[in-house]
Amino acid sequence: MGEADGATASHDEALAACAEEHLALVRCYRGSQPQRCHEAHVRFWTCYRTKRGWNDTHVARWTRWFGDAKKKKEDEDPST
Which residues contact 43 (CB under 8 A, 6 or more apart)? Predict the structure, then answer.
């Protein structure tokens, strides 16, 4: 499973893969004010989103979605 082959992890798999970052974030939240935990927040969510396959940009998702929709329409009706 990896980003290169387009595979994505489940929630539990992503959480397990990012356990160290998650623990650091939880410890930060418990030990200080939440606004002081920005770095830990960014590290955890970057890891989690990457493992889940969600770390691309909105433009990339939009392009893929519209590209896939157009391809599907062309497959159904080759005259377009």
Answer: 21, 24, 25
